[in-house]
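Continuing the series of single-chain predictions for the mutant panel. This is the parent chain; the variants come on the following pages.
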Amino acid sequence: MTTTQPLESSTQATARDGNVDSTPAAAAAGGRRRSRIPGPLLPQRFRPTNRPKLWLEIALIALGYYLYTLTRLAAPSHESAAQQRGHDILRLEHYLGLNFEDTFNHWVYSMRWLAFSMNVYYATLHFIVPIAVLVWVYFKFPDRYRAVRTVMIAMTLIALFGFYFYSLAPPRMLHGGDFVDTFKLLNPWGQTAATSDGVAGLGSSTNEYAAMPSLHIGWSTWCALVIAHLAQRRWVKALGIAYPFCTFAVIIGTANHYVLDAVFGLVTLALGFLVQRILQGRQVFAPPKPAGDAPLPRQPEGLTAGGLDDDGASAELVRPSIHLRT
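Parent structure:
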């Protein structure tokens, strides 16, 4: 008794026999390359792409900010260790050629209007801009919101470990340093005492040694990436990209952070993206694939929709050998 198998194209037969072209070009043309990043860790039902309920998001963000503030307050001050680490960072930056904070800080203070403007910028935009970006993505790009929000939450939680385990005196509070504390001399709220957050009168109720990593840089760069990827107008993209650069000038000019604080702020942001990828298994700005959609079968190279090759000839079909049964 004989049985026949379905006809298959020569391309399929070649692939079946193991003669598949494994070059990068073939991989790019023929299929998806397996990611080296593990994930997703979350089950499918915990990875929805629809827009979450607004009241739930507001409650989640409020709870997250409360825990963020609580952790900062609970972090040990360790003033002597924080001061020593500040001097260590200055020595390391001097070795790396990055120790321009003092010069830039004095230049900013020499122009009082600029120092005052930077104080206002530091104390306000750090919270206003990220919240505005979250609201914008929530309403305009609901399918990207969960991924974008997850990056920010993961980045902030990672930064809290730095605040708790690595107390660091900012430049303006460094004993023996030559930095100008612009907040005390040009406080935007009309008082002479201000915290590192620029909030007057709260020096005794916040941890001013929570400087490493710089979330001013982490959050502002997160905003820039979101705006650059999702905004349509070029001038909006330009403003978004300029935001972290302006923020970097502000945190150095007001002597609230070292250059290395900014560097580790970027590292923290990168870890936030990594956590999101592991949890949800997709790129942050890639449009999510609808659940249950099966990929269409790939047409063999060189064939047109009518089954003809580029020269108009019929594609060769290979019939597998006939198997005999007894």
